[in-house]
Design goal:
The protein has seven helices and seven strands; from the N terminus they run H-E-H-E-E-E-E-H-E-E-H-H-H-H. By secondary structure, it is an alpha/beta fold. The protein folds into two domains: about 130 residues, Response regulator (Rossmann fold, 3-Layer(aba) Sandwich), CATH 3.40.50.2300; about 55 residues, Winged helix-like DNA-binding domain superfamily/Winged helix DNA-binding domain (Arc Repressor Mutant, subunit A). The chain has a five-stranded parallel β-sheet, covered by helices on one side. Strands 6-7 form a two-stranded parallel ribbon. Helix 5 crosses helix 6. About 40% of the residues are buried.
């Protein structure tokens, strides 16, 4: 899985949303990922820290310094003294996009959707990379199959899962992944997803 390859362990994700139904829905989705473990506030053991916190403004106070906060908000980053968000997504963001943001945030990226006017908080001690709308780049044209592979990459699917889901061989899956890395100018899967999000190639 993407997170295991890049940071070497299962990610502990603290879900802190005011809407209990949405919190349960997101946690259930995270439970289906074998590289993510979801917990609620109060479930962390003493001394245990979450790798990433997914919260709305009401729940963001659970994030401690050093934690990476994925904020689900349409109000921007106005957290006033709390941990700055490294990712800002719409409150109704699709679970697949939230999962991608979790993995990217844990890998050191700062994320905001293309076209989003929210300012991105910068911590000068953090070397996170910013994914944002920038100067125009040459459009990347993907085949329908490459688009399917990219969508599965954004879910964190390894080559074997991509092959099974698309009913192709693992060798062919590897070929498509390699072709995507070249087309996107990415060094690895994490960079490929970051570039795809920046260019609007990951549809939600």
């Amino acid at each position: 899985m993407l997170a295991r390859n890049d940071i070497g362990h299962r990610l502990l994700v603290l879900v802190s949303l005011a809407d209990a139904v949405e919190a349960r829905r997101l946690s259930a989705t995270l439970a289906g990922m074998d590289d993510l473990v979801a917990v609620y506030p109060g479930e962390l053991e003493e001394g245990e820290r979450a790798d990433v916190v997914v919260a709305d403004h009401a729940g963001a106070a659970v994030a401690a310094p050093g934690m990476r906060l994925v904020l689900l908000s349409d109000r921007g980053l106005g957290l006033d003294g709390t941990v700055p968000a490294v990712a800002v997504l719409a409150p109704n963001a699709a679970p697949a996009l939230v999962i991608s943001a979790i993995r990217l945030a844990a890998a050191g990226y700062r994320i905001r959707p293309c076209g989003n006017d929210f300012p991105v908080a910068h911590d000068e001690t953090d070397e996170g990379r910013l994914i944002e709308e920038g100067p125009a780049h040459a459009a990347v044209h993907l085949s329908p199959r490459e688009a399917q592979v990219l969508a599965l990459l954004a879910e964190g699917a390894p080559n074997k899962v991509i092959a099974r889901r698309l009913d192709i061989s693992v060798h062919t899956a590897k070929f498509h992944v390699a072709a995507l890395l070249v087309k996107l100018g990415a060094a690895n899967r994490t960079d490929a997803i970051a570039t795809a999000m920046r260019q609007g190639l990951v549809l939600v």
